[in-house]
Design goal:
Layout lengths: L4 H20 L3 H8 L3 H11 L33 E5 L5 H16 L2 H8 L4 E6 L2 H13 L8 E5 L12 E7 L8 H11 E12 L7 H21 L2 H13 L3 H10 L3 E8 L4 E7 L2
Parallel strand pairs: 1-2, 1-4, 2-3, 4-5
Antiparallel strand pairs: 5-7, 6-7
Helix pairs in contact: 1-9, 2-8, 3-4, 8-9
Bound molecules: S-adenosylmethionine.
């Protein structure tokens, strides 16, 4: 095929994203804390608290449950024996939370609830296209005492072409990752393909603020503060300039929800956090 503008643009995007994450891998976690004033930790907790329900667990007081939502339907925690895929998993933040929640479920649960599931092997896959990010994640896993945990599996791979079988996973998360991919539709189609029926798709992403005044303040923060801090702390203004651009180009909450539905997901909904600075989108495969 001819090399149209679109293809060139796409190659450029993949290359840029590759460079960004190779160059920021070592400062990535520190930058996350600075840029979000630590809020990304709470956002990730919230994401994990929305994972797939497990009927046997519904009466348990599970650590980290939010309590304020419809607990039976959608807001329960991960379960032992689950197969979960965290895509664009980077340095492991989401996967660590899932594993740590699981470990606390195991400690609290009564034996009868768990006997069917404990023997099944839990597998939390962290998939990322960038080996530098995964390497930082592996080191962090050691530091957190998860280095020997066989449930944690690091895989280098592309969200647009996953190396997982159809209908093979209970849950799928992608945090601050889908904004960087070249074809969002391909990523959603792959998420749908690999999930089992009943499996949940969850996406945490920087989104759009529409609240007046707050929007203007947030724009100032994005345009002036983020690139400057990027330069001062990570020594890399361009990567953080790219970050700001990519947020602007990402579809609105409603548009993104309709893309998730178009991929086949049911019960698509989203929740804005901090006025839409980030949004959590959710869908189920029936
Ligand atoms: N999920 C982690 C977190 O929340 O801290 C990391 C998010 S980081 C902003 C985005 C990650 O997406 C990077 O690690 C990058 O390598 C990865 N990425 C970009 N394009 C990808 C693709 N096509 N497939 C898989 N991972 C990709």
């Amino acid at each position: 095929g001819g090399t149209g503008f679109k293809e060139v643009h796409e190659e450029e995007k993949s290359r840029l994203v590759g460079n960004v994450f190779s160059s920021v891998a070592s400062s990535y976690d520190l930058m996350n804390d600075i840029m979000s004033v630590g809020l990304h930790r709470l956002w990730k907790d919230k994401l994990v608290s929305k994972l797939n329900p497990f009927p046997g667990m519904k009466h348990l007081d599970v650590a980290g449950g939010t309590g304020q939502h419809n607990i039976l339907v959608s807001k329960l925690n991960p379960f032992p024996g689950m197969k979960h895929l965290d895509v664009a998993g980077g340095t492991g933040d989401v996967a660590f939370r899932i594993l740590e929640t699981l470990n606390s479920v195991k400690r609290r649960a009564t034996q009868d609830v768990l006997e069917d599931n404990l023997h099944k092997e839990t597998q939390i896959f962290v998939c990322d296209i960038n080996p530098n990010m995964l390497n930082v994640g592996k080191k962090r896993a050691m530091e957190r005492g998860l280095g020997e945990d066989k449930s944690l599996i690091w895989v280098e791979g592309d969200a647009e072409a996953l190396k997982f079988k159809d209908n093979s996973l209970d849950g799928y998360t992608i945090a601050f990752g889908i904004r960087n991919v070249t074809h969002i539709e391909k990523v959603l189609a792959e998420a749908y393909r690999v999930l089992k029926r009943g499996g949940r798709f969850l996406c945490l992403e920087l989104s759009h603020v529409e609240v007046p005044v707050f929007k203007e303040l947030y724009d100032c923060y994005s345009f002036f503060v983020i690139p400057t801090v990027g330069e001062l702390v990570a020594g890399d203004r361009n990567s953080y300039q790219y970050l700001v651009e990519s947020i602007r180009c990402f579809p609105s909450q409603e548009t993104f929800a309709s893309m998730i539905a178009a991929a086949g997901f049911q019960k698509v909904e989203y929740e804005n956090l901090v006025g839409g600075v980030v949004a959590i989108h959710s869908g189920l495969k029936f």
